[in-house]
Amino acid sequence: MPNGCGSVLGAMQLTLYAINRNHKGAATGEEEPVEMSKAKTHINSTEKTEKKAQNSVANQVEQTTQAGGQWLPAASC
C-alpha cells in the first residue's frame, strides 16, 4: 500500500513539474524591495536608538558607582 501511494504521488509530482517547468514565476516590481529596505532601515534605526539608551544608562550607573554610590548628574551639553 505505501509503495502504491508513493508511486501515485511521484507520478503527480512529475506531471506537475512537466507542466510548470517553463513557468517564470510572478513578476516582481521595484516597490516590494523598496518597502523591505524601508522596514530594515526602520528596524536598524530603532536598534541603534535602543543601544544608545542602554549605553547612557550604563554610563550613569558606572558614574554613580565610581562616586561611591552618590548620584552625580552628568554634565549637559
From TrEMBL:
Keywords, sorted A to Z: Sugar transport, Transport
Top-level taxon of origin: Eukaryota
Biased segments, Polar residues type: 54-68
Disordered, as annotated region: 26-77
Protein name: Putative bidirectional sugar transporter SWEET1a
UniProt source species: Cocos nucifera (Coconut palm)
